[in-house]
Amino acid sequence: MHLYQNQLLKIYNSLSGEKEIFKPINDGNVGMYVCGPTVYSNVHLGNVRTFMSFDVIFRYLLHLEYKVRYVRNITDVGHIVDDIDEGEDKIAKKARIEQLEPMEIVQRYTVDFHSILDKYNFLPPSIEPTATGHIIEQIQIVEQIIEKGFAYITNGSVYFDVVKFNENHNYGKLSGRNIEDMLANTRDTEGQSDKKNPQDFALWKKAEPEHIMRWPSPWGIGFPGWHLECTAMSTKYLGETFDIHGGGMDLKFPHHECEIAQNEACTGSSPVNYWMHANMLTLNGKKMAKSTGNNILPSDIFTGDSPFLSKAFSPNVARFFMLQAHYRSVLDFSNDAILAAEKGFERLMDSLQNIDSIEPSSNSSINIENWKKSCYDAMNDDFNTPILIAQLFEGIKFVNQLNDKRETITALDLTLLKTTLETFTFDVLGIKNEKSVNNNSEKLEGVVEMLIGMRNDARANKNWSLSDEIRDKLLAIGIQLKDGKEGTTFSI
Ligand code: AMP
Ligand code: ZN
């Protein structure tokens, strides 16, 4: 029997505004799509927070033994500056400024994105599709929407007819917006736009001669609309209706609202059962954004090279800092806040080391099963990582009490305490086990020191052949000994 069959996982669904019991479409399997980055510049720490929220969700679903297909795309075309339909593509603009091919921009920032996520110990998604790799699928969806009567062609571009769609669907059901209000509150763009209504959005845009990203289509040379790529890639790999769709809160409208409309127009069915939105990371009270300069790069954290930081921090500390807030709460980044997180993080790591010195006894005075259940309860309550972390500190309290011999524990319970603490810290929260890495290098240093000591003894006994043998064999595996006035040192 799989562990997940005992679990009652609740997820806050942005569509209903309620926490709902999670029931996947296919028992034991989860399909999850998360909007990926637009690769026209380095990701900032705010972007990392959103992706980390979903990394932990992915990790916990895996821990519950679901078979998860996690799709996170790369947006490499179609995202227009200011998230509107008129204007320049973010990637094309950067390519023009830097005098590079758009795909050189895409490559540079995709590599950066991957290396950052690697440093922050992310699990790779199951599929990472690109928008430019799915132009044919996007064109097919536009054709279907036209066929169903929910889109119109003007001057080589295709627009989604929001007003027509709203006649028998609910445009605005995710974001809580009302189309009449939206229409009343938007400027009249008559004469400036090819759209029938300002709320209509582009499915396909005609490429002007100067537009460098362009593909042939039944409507002429052009490029796909931003919202379309996610509909194409999510349904291609996860089916017409799938379990979870995630992204940052700022994508709820228009991006995700438009995804719902596209899918419903095309197939008649709602694409997603659970919509999840991660909240923003702010910096000293203001939203972190690429465009305003109010941001920290994820690499600034481990170099400390930022006016916002007093020193460098390990990516683990930044991960721990971010997971101390629930994914649906706004989190404010400040030097003081990450300094405080570092203290807590070190306390957690030290205690994990101290478990091994606990001596078991014949009975337990603490209820480990109950405590373990509280860890699951925290995560089952809409992935509540701050409560989980509070529970991990409760576990640490046990470790300290046991080491002080103020409580007792059986060998079986001790194993349960250790595995639960380690599983939630490393596998679920995704903290990299730095101490074990350091430990290995410490152990290696200890072994070399021991060999230096044996070589010193050999030299004192004038056993030159043994002393040379130790030196040469160490050198053969890349460890060089250097004899100096202060004794022997080594480099690895
Ligand atoms: P983008 O590359 O701009 O499409 O953004 C990638 C992801 O980061 C999206 O899910 C955004 O919602 C999210 N995001 C953008 N800014 C922030 C922020 N300040 N805090 C958290 N997430 C953000
Ligand atoms: Zn998307």
Q: What features would you describe in this structure?
A:
With 492 residues, the protein is an alpha/beta fold. It has three domains: 3-278, 3-Layer(aba) Sandwich (Rossmann fold), CATH 3.40.50; 282-438, Up-down Bundle (Four Helix Bundle (Hemerythrin (Met), subunit A)), CATH 1.20.120; 441-491, no CATH class. Helix content is 46%, strand content 14%. The chain contains 16 helices and 15 strands. The strands form five sheets. A four-stranded parallel beta sheet has the order 4-3-9-10, with helices on both faces. Helix 7 (226-238) crosses helix 8 (252-267) and helix 15 runs antiparallel to helix 16 (464-476). The chain is globular and about 95 Å long. The mean pLDDT is 93.
